[in-house]
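Support case: magnesium ion complex. Customer-provided input:
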Amino acid sequence: MTEEILPAFTELALAPALHRVIAEIGYETPSPIQAQSIPPLLAGRDLLGQAQTGTGKTAAFALPLLTRLDLALVRPQILVLTPTRELALQVAEAMQTYARHLPGFHVLPVYGGQNMGQQLRQLERGVHAVVGTPGRIQDHLRRGTLKLDRLTCVVLDEADEMLRMGFVDEVEAILEQTPPTRQTALFSATMPKEVLNVARRHLKDPVEIRIKTKTATVAAITQRYWQVKGLHKLDALTRILEAEEIEAMLIFVRTKIETVELAEKLEARGFTCAALNGDMTQALREKAIERLKNGSLDIVIATDVAARGLDVPRISHVINYDIPYDTESYVHRIGRTGRAGRPGQAILFVAPRERRMLNAIEQATRQPITPMTLPSRKDIANRRISLFKEQIAEAMEAQDLEFFEELIDSYQSEYDVGLRRIAATLAYLVQKERPLQPAEAFAEEVVTPEVERAVPRAPRRESSKTPEIGLTTYRVEVGRSHGVEPKHLVGAISNEANISSRGIGYIKIHDDYCLVDLPDDLPQQTIRHLQSVWVCGRRLLLSAVGKGGGEKPGKGGSFVKDGAKRPFKPGAKKPFPARGAKKGS
Ligand code: ADP
Ligand code: MG
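Agent response - structure generated as follows:
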């Protein structure tokens, strides 16, 4: 916490309706930026505020501006400019929440890619506040569909980012079209020259506020690093995913492509996850964030830009899978956890040649980052075993097992074996795809070239002669000599045939050809299409060679596969939770 004593919210002259919301939401004290910004903004002063993300800037401007708002005048009075659509939505949502007890209050988020007609209708119906990206706001101003003549306040949120994204002309043009009497607040995590120039030109005698990097938010985050050695980063990540108490995790990588590739690899290992990057459509990104918020998704792999400003209090872990380019983005990244007063965990993967960046980060944040050792195979095994026991207990408690008890009775009398042996066999079947003793699988993942396969599977059992139900083996006419790798095939087939990479089974690479297990029920049309698809300069010329012999496609890390998918007791619920590897699921 900061040393200075912060005033209570009740000491701030905010509208009673806002005090009520603050109490309802459960904010105890204003954050430092709020304590320092609210009084001057209430007094109508301009403001230049420097504070990192996660310090509570939204309420710092929203609460005083909502207090000063004339609710009876249904015209845009507040305009907030944000660098991205996500932030526009987030800020609009937060303002709507803070204004919960201001009857009839309307805030409209406005951003590119959103249906223009809908925006126009809402603008016509009347709004008190508009939150948007500079480009789309400019559009509306040009068309005359947004009128700023009654505007009393402009907020430039995350100004450094806005300018970095090239919005300087739009921002200036917009400011020029607002009444000269308006109040202006500018917030920025950093204060480069460009931001100061805009401030100099458009702010009148501003109150200047600077909140140091070391905020309570950052202090609530435990920072660790893992020195990359011995294991691949993917294996390290998998162990962390299995061993830590995780509510939700945000994983940072450097490129958009890597978000997708890592997501595929994690899915192949049974973790449900999603990529978040700038190439995705707005709708897809919003969907992923919504799922992360509501708990139907726990792992997101993102780039810096896509995750900027993301505010999901569930995020308990931030993993810097790839080290950030600078200390500032490190602070932004880890600021996605430890939100809203919750504790957060940040883990940084550091390759030997990245040690200097680690030192720089420690210096910049003036906080220690402690080395961590990865959980051992034994730790993982212990955790899997205890989760397994929990699952048994839960199912025993929650399920009607009569049908199964009778089944076991009849099995026992038919085959004359002990209950212990039957139970052990069933336990074996249940854990087959995610073995409770992961020793061999782990060793193999580390040392064999198979690691690089896009779809790593549990080691294949040579003895398994029985063909797997659900898969057919196909031959494709591209092989090792053409430079093909499993990821090429997975990429091409999943894209062209529109099957998820999880639907693709075992891949065996030969010199001139490959064998690939694909779902039995591929439509003829898809098969024909795949025949003409090119991979590594060769046409696949896909042909069926028989029943799939490889591993079945995994799903969601479940201990149970067949049972979960095809209950043999008609109408039975899923006998086991869908995600065996996760706590509380
Ligand atoms: P910033 O814009 O600086 O990144 P936000 O306004 O998005 O920060 O706030 C970050 C998080 O902190 C949000 O989840 C918000 O609800 C929470 N928050 C804001 N002010 C307070 C407060 N006074 N007490 C507790 N939580 C707060
Ligand atoms: Mg913000």
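The longest helix spans residues 377-398.

Case will auto-close in a few days if no follow-up is received.
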